[in-house]
Design goal:
By secondary structure, the protein is of the alpha/beta class. It is built from seven helices and twelve strands. The chain has a six-stranded mixed beta sheet, with helices on both faces. Strands 7-6-11-10 form a four-stranded antiparallel beta sheet, with no helix packed on it. It comes from Cheirogaleus major (Greater dwarf lemur).
Length: about 300
């Protein structure tokens, strides 16, 4: 039992289940293999903030790796969620029903946290695998439903928050049975992740999930520049001048939280721009670098009608 460990032993246990680094592109990476509970976090919270969290606060995006997280304490859920929640409001994120005691416990984000919260303007990606279970699944599900994180990887196990080992009569046989469950207030309709697992926003094999997450974050870093470039191009070139202000306002107010690929971005931009302008000729396309396009061999002259300089 963790309650029997000294602070030094707790710290050693905690460090075995945590790994962090700052990756290329100033992306923070935090791998958590066991979610600590309130008791541990109350004792070691200051250490975690000073030695881990502050080093990740300056990053431009965060990857939370739960691929190997197969256990944890329910009381740790509000801590993880709260550091990624803006904090201007307290949010009800889950309700847990316990069958033996026939009680329910509501889980809310914390009104205050030690240190700082991760900025709501920064992207968060959660990595999952076919081994992610229990409390880690609940955290991934909550962050997905809050639209605070993009879940990348494999469908999770669909395990249980709390398993209890029970003896069958007076025999030497035992069985484990889920004794509590998430009622999932964020999902609506009483649907939760238990049994079915958490479906990722972007499905990919677990071993490729981090690479995929980094490519998504690279795209999302480019979004402000793309939007600004479109606004300038419309201002300078679009012939239906009277519609330009409405188009620029639409671009400025668009929600890109679900964009995870170039195809998503192109589809979203075209649907919005054409609806506002009522002009089907107004098109956005994703074009590969010119040297990868089919055409003459390197060093050959451009074919007739192809300009040697194409605007970005």
């Amino acid at each position: 039992a963790l309650s029997n460990l000294t602070q030094e032993e707790l710290l050693a246990w905690l460090q075995r289940g945590l790994r962090y680094e700052v990756l290329e592109g100033n992306v923070g990476y935090l791998r958590v293999d066991d979610i600590p509970g309130e008791e541990v976090l109350s004792k070691l919270g200051q250490f975690l903030v000073a030695h881990i969290w502050r080093k990740l606060m300056g990053t431009s995006a965060l990857v939370l790796d739960l691929q190997h997280c197969t256990g944890g304490q329910v009381s740790g859920i509000p801590y993880v969620i709260s550091y990624l929640h803006p904090g201007n409001t307290v949010l009800h994120v889950d309700t847990i029903y316990d069958r033996p005691s026939n009680t329910t416990t509501e889980i809310w984000t914390l009104p205050q946290v030690q240190g700082e919260r991760y900025s709501a303007d920064k992207d968060v990606v959660v990595l999952t695998s076919g081994h992610t279970r229990g409390v880690a699944e609940d955290i991934a599900y909550i962050l997905k439903q809050m639209r605070r994180a993009i879940v990348v990887g494999e469908r999770t196990v669909g395990g249980a928050l709390n398993l209890q080992k029970l003896r069958i009569g007076q025999s030497s046989f035992f069985f484990t049975v889920p004794v509590s469950r998430s009622l999932g207030p964020l999902g609506g309709g009483g649907q939760t992740w238990e049994g079915s697992g958490v479906l990722p926003c972007v499905g990919t094999p677990a071993e490729q999930a981090l690479e995929k997450a980094l490519s998504i974050l690279t795209l999302r870093r480019a979004l402000p520049g793309v939007v600004h470039g479109l606004q300038e191009a419309l201002q300078d070139y679009y012939t239906l001048v009277d519609r330009v202000p409405a188009l620029q306002n639409h671009l400025a107010s668009m929600d890109f939280s679900t964009v995870v690929s170039e195809e998503d971005l192109v589809t979203k931009l075209n649907a919005g721009l054409q609806a506002v302008s009522e002009d089907p000729r107004l098109l956005v396309r994703a074009v590969r670098p010119r040297e990868t396009l089919p055409g003459p061999e390197a060093g050959a002259e451009d074919p007739p009608g192809v300009a040697s300089e194409v605007p970005e």
